[in-house]
Amino acid sequence: MTVIAVFNMKGGVGKTTIAANLAAAIAKNGVEPLLIDLDPQAHLTSMYGIKTPSSKSIYRFYQGLSSLSDLAMPLPSGVQFIASHLELGKIDAQVARHRDNIWRLKLGLHAEMLSGSGLPIIIDCTPMLGVVAFSALFAADIILVPVASEYLALNGAMQLSQTLYGLEKFQSRTPRRYLLNRYIPNQITAETVAGQLTKHFPGEVLKTRIREQEALAAAVGCGSNIFDFAPTSDAATDFSFLLDELIENNLLSLSRDLPFIHE
Ligand SMILES: Nc1ncnc2c1ncn2[C@@H]1O[C@H](COP(=O)(O)OP(=O)(O)O)[C@@H](O)[C@H]1O
Ligand SMILES: [Mg+2]
């Protein structure tokens, strides 16, 4: 398993926070992952303070004008990063003309021998259900679904599960894991959501919970990750646990002998 799509149709549940810090956790373990900002809102790209023209962004790849490897840039944290751009939104609008875009990411990762090579690839997905989101879901070996510990979270998770079920017409079921985020221990709502999730999705809810922690929001504000910003914080511990759990469950492996091509 190498390609992890961090996905939820709901905004604000922690997709970007989780994608960025999971990639940082992998890098901290000495393996250089590929992190792709696949949201036209480009929050991750802005968070890193990257101002790139659309010609240097993932939009170029969806236009068929660049390889993924050519777009990747190294971040100081030891992550290879592909930036996004507002223009990526055009891909969803062009669905009638370019239906094949739905497979583009899967085929591109395969053609460049990035998927299946052991290279961890983390995709920060757009919440907009369109071609771009579907292309990530089709490329994924595992779908990681952050669920915020809030009222109606279960409804959102059930809707999402139905949407993913619809994709099974085109491709066999992709394993998925639900990750409770913004968790407040012993808070009634948080514990209720945790209980409901486990009941409805047995075997698919990760034991790790990412607690509600100011340090995570503050790290984003500084364009940093939790391991550089607050390495001894509970948040850093939560992300280390998340990585360990994914590895223990064979959903990710950290091989140090990877094919990522450096310029
Ligand atoms: N565990 C957490 N503790 C505190 N703040 C969080 C946590 N997870 C996310 N946030 C904050 O919530 C907001 C939305 O998170 P974000 O990762 O951008 O969600 P999404 O990508 O799903 O829209 C951001 O301001 C982020 O800093
Ligand atoms: Mg986001």
TrEMBL record:
Domain of life, per lineage: Bacteria
InterPro entries in the record: AAA_dom, DNA_Partitioning_ATPase, P-loop_NTPase
Pfam hit, one: AAA_31
Residue ranges annotated for the AAA domain, each copy included: 1-168
Name of the protein described by the UniProt record: ParA family protein
Organism of this sequence: Deefgea piscis
